[in-house]
Amino acid sequence: MKIKNIIGIALLLTVWALPGRAQVGEQRHNLAVGFNGGINLNSVSFSPTVRQKNLMGINGGLTARYISEKYFSMICGAQIELNFSQHGWDEYSEDYPELQYTRKMNYVEIPLLAHLAFGKDRGVQFFVHAGPQIGFFISDTRTKNDAWDKTSHNLVTEQHDKNVENKFDYGITGGAGLELRTKAGNFLVEGRYYYALSDFYKSTKKDYFDRSAHGTIVAKITYLFDLKK
To answer: Which segments constitute the Outer membrane protein beta-barrel domain (predicted)?
Structure first.
């Protein structure tokens, strides 16, 4: 792992831990749990480059959040999720539009997020999430049409029959959104971006790919209900 990746993860872990440790604001003890669901727009950063377009996948699971304090107008807390998430890529070439190859990769993911919000206790709040994320590869599906065997081309195909070699995925994620807090529960709409620091193929000097990492735009909605206010 590169030293800049280690530093980045350490900083994000520090940011995530701060809300639980701070003792200078108005104390809160709000625990909420619920569920989330949404979609991923996926691509993979390959080196050498593989031309592709965004692949849509699903994302959903369980959410738990703890609000520890309100410091001036900023509400501070931490959030953790346990999600099923689909990543992967959809190859595309303008020169060979008849070629089709899609890889969907299924993961169990755990984002660890600092939750910083601004707004009223009842009503609309604006919030920001940021923190590290880890994932565990569980399965994949591959779709490849017969045109690959019938067309003469010079495209990169090393990735087609290559199995995932590094099943542990890690990176950083962050985003922002709006939360509507009501007596019936809390409703969140959010956009995030996930940037993987790990490669799912081996990337030593003897391996073909120097880089094979996920990049994902996430749009999701979450429902939370308070267990403790």
So the answer is: 22-200
**What would the pLDDT profile of 160-211 be if each residue is shown by its tens digit?**
999 999 999 999 999 999 999 998 999 999 999 999 999 999 999 999 999 9
With residue 19 as reference, give the H or E element that holds it: helix 3-21
How confident is the model over 74-109, as pLDDT tens digits? 899 999 999 999 999 999 888 888 999 999 999 999
Burial class (CB in 10 A: 0-12, 13-18, 19+), 109: buried
Give the other-Cβ count within 10 Å of 135's Cβ.
25
Identify the band that residue 158 occupies on the pLDDT scale cut at 50, 70 and 90.
Answer: very high
Give the number of other Cβ atoms within 10 Å of residue 121's Cβ: 12
Q: What beta strand segments (E) does 54-156 contain?
A: 55-71, 74-91, 101-119, 123-144
The domain total for the chain is 1
Q: Tell whether omega for the bond before 48 is within 30 degrees of 0, i.e. cis.
A: yes
CATH of the domain at 212: 2.40.160.20
